[in-house]
Design a protein that fits this description.
4-stranded antiparallel β-sheet; single chain; 292 residues; Nucleoside Triphosphate Pyrophosphohydrolase; 2 domains
């Protein structure tokens, strides 16, 4: 699932984006989760939020006409607006591919329509390269991807001890209109809606596997009682990149976060007393702890 080697030669992380889609229910705020295929090369079988790598076509300047304006926080994810937009485009493209969810400006799509859009995205028209299918799909339907609705939440970078590394921007997105979400039976083999507390409970009981960025995101969203408070929580988070450092504390495998004494980056520990400074491997799970 995760294969850390402290002696591994570092590889350059690939840009990626992921989206925690949330909705309000009588039980509280729920988040949409998908389970990665067990044969996936990275985090196979893990429960994650929909997302994936930034494609070269996500960086095209043509997206200026096919997207809404980014928020100031979303623009801060990169040094230039074009790069920041590419993260948001990748987030929505991967969300459609893996979850049949798409935020568009001025249209109330339902589950049947997004399922059809996903089918067309996976089977582009004759003569249309797969790489350009998302932009072509939106242009043909007269749709504009609503990147403005993506609320930045966090920025995680895979530890250098991993062979597959990603520089990932995390967003939160309120579920658009009448959409429902559905896994794609290819990259993702199962999906479900649940409160952050319920997902964490399944993880604590060993029923599912969560990577540290996913479990931490769910913990951050625990206090959310509605969409408004979930967005407020996201806006209160730092967007400074978090790159855990794999090391040993005695015989204990540890992923130290910036601010932990075991992390080589000399930054202060989080002021939030509930925020972990490290993840400790216990019974096959990396569990958040604060250094003592």
């Amino acid at each position: 699932m995760l294969q850390f080697d402290p002696d591994r030669e570092p590889v350059t992380p690939k840009d990626a984006a992921t989206v925690a889609v949330v909705r309000e229910t009588p039980l509280g705020v729920e988040v949409f989760c998908v389970q990665r295929h067990t044969r996936s090369g990275f985090l196979g079988g893990a429960v994650v939020f929909p997302g994936g790598k930034v494609d070269a076509t996500d960086r095209s300047e043509h997206w200026q006409d096919l997207t809404t304006d980014l928020t100031a926080r979303a623009r801060s994810f990169a040094e230039d607006e074009s790069t920041a937009r590419s993260f948001a485009v990748a987030a929505l493209r991967e969300l459609l591919e893996e979850a049949a969810i798409l935020a568009v400006e001025g249209a109330d799509l339902d589950a049947e329509q997004t399922a059809e859009l996903r089918r067309e995205l996976s089977e582009p028209a004759a003569g249309e390269p797969q790489a350009h299918a998302f932009a072509a799909l939106l242009r043909a339907r007269g749709l504009k991807a609503d990147t403005r609705r993506l609320e930045p939440l966090a920025h995680w970078i895979t530890p250098i001890a991993e062979s597959r590394r990603y520089d990932t921007r995390f967003y939160i997105l309120p579920l658009p209109g009448r959409q429902q979400g559905a896994h794609d039976q290819h990259e993702t083999t199962a999906s479900f809606w649940a409160t952050p507390r319920d997902v964490l409970g399944r993880w604590e009981r060993g029923e599912i596997f969560l990577a540290p960025p996913t479990s931490r995101t769910l913990q951050i969203l625990l206090p959310a009682s509605d969409i408004e408070s979930a967005i407020a929580i996201a806006r209160a988070q730092t967007l400074e990149p978090v790159c855990p450092f794999f090391t040993l504390d005695g015989d204990q495998a540890v992923l130290a976060l910036p601010g932990d004494p075991l992390h080589p980056r000399p930054t202060p520990a989080p002021e939030d007393p509930d925020a972990p400074t490290r993840f400790v491997l216990l019974d096959g799970r990396f569990v958040g702890r604060r250094a003592v």
